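INFO batch 0412 | record 1 of 1 | parsing
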Amino acid sequence: MTHVVIVGAGPAGLAAAEHALAAGADVTVLDQADAPGGQFHRGAAHRFEALLSRCAWWPESTVWAVEGRRVHVLRGPADGTHRRRRTLEPDALVLATGAHDRVLPFPGWQLPGVFTAGAAQALAKGERVAVGRRVLVAGAGPFLLPVAESLVDVGAEVLGVLEANPARTVLQGWSWHAAAHVGKMTELVRHAGTLARHRVPYRMGRAVIEARGDDRVREAVTARVRADWSVVPGTERTYAIDALCVGHGFVPQPELAVAAGCALDGGFVRVGDDQRTSVAGVFAAGELTGIGGSVAAAAEGAVAGWAAAGRTPGRALLERRDHARAFARRLAAAHPIGAAWPGWLREDTIVCRCEETSYGDLKTAAADPAAPGPHALKLGTRAGLGPCQGRMCGLAVADLCGGAERHHRPIAQPIRLGELAEPKELP
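INFO prediction complete | emitting C-alpha cells
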C-alpha cells in the first residue's frame, strides 16, 4: 500500500488526505496546530473527525527539515520542552503548508496594537477575543471583509474597511466570470450585508499610510490613493483607534518545498498538471502554488492526493481545479499591489522589524557598489535575517531593493540545541 505523508491540515491538506484515502493509500497528516482546519476552518475541527480517524493524525508536529521525501518531525507543543524527533520516509509527500499575511511597511506599523488581518481573525474566531475596542481594517483583498465581520461578532467597533485598490480595478476583476463563481459572490455579499447592518463603511481607493502613538497605536492616518497606490495630497484623514488590522494579501510558505529541492516560479512552487513538483514523489497544493483561497486550495489538494496515491486524477477533478485557478487569477487582477506604495515610507520607517532595519538603511546599502546583490544587502543590513527569517519583510525588501531570493535552509523551523543533539530519531 502506498504511504502518503501530507504536511498541512488546511483546506488543501485535508482534501489531499480525503482523496488519497479514496485512492487506497495509507495516509499520515501532520500539522503544527493542535486541531485541523487551518486558518479558513479555524474552530471547526469537529467537521474533520471522521476523515482523520481513517488517517494517522499527528497534531502539534513541526517539520523542521526535509531531504527529498524524507521528513524530519518534532512532535509536541512548540513551546514544550519534551518534543521528540521522528523521521518519516513515505512513498509520496504532499506539501500543503499554505500562506501567511502579507503586510507592506508604513510609518508606525511596528507599534503595539497593529495586527495582521490573519492574527486578528485568529483571535476573534479561535479565542473570541477582539484585538481592540475601536478598530480599523485596511489593506487589499476580499479577506478584509470576513476579518471585519469576525471583529464585529466579538463586540469590536469597526470604524471602516479600507481597500487600497480603486473601485474600477476591483469591480473589473470581480465582474469577469462572476456568474461562474456564484458561491464566492454569495459569500462576499453575505459579508458585505453583515457589515452594512452594523454600519461599517467599506471604502475603496483608500489606504493607511501611517500609524501614530507612543506606547501603542493611538491614531491611523489614511489617504486616498490612485490606482498605482500613490497618495493623493490633501486627502488625509485621521482615525482615533486602539487597534489597526492590516493585510495586503498573502505570501506562500515555501521553505519546506525549497528544502526538498522543488523548483519555484515567481516565489510559488512549480507544479505539473497533477500537482507534481520537480522532485520525484513530492507534490504541492494550495497557496504554495498560487494564492487562490480555500476553494482553489481544496481543488488542488484533491488532485494532489489522488496523484500521490499513484492514481491518475479524473477529468472532473482536473476541471474543478482549473475552474478554481481561473477564479484565483481574477482575484489577483482585482486586488493587485500598487507599485507606488514605497511613496508612503520615510527614511526612518522600519522595514525589517526583527532587525530594526530602516528604509534609509536599505537605500544606502542598495546604492553601495561595493556590496552588490540581495545576499550582500542582507548581510550588510541584517534585513530578513532575524527570528522571522524574512517571512514578514522579505517581499517588501525585494520590492524596495530588487532581487528576491529563496535560500535552502537545512533547518526550516526552529529547533532547540538539545533536541538537535538527541542521539537518534525515532522511526
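INFO post-check: The chain has a mean pLDDT of 89.
INFO record closed
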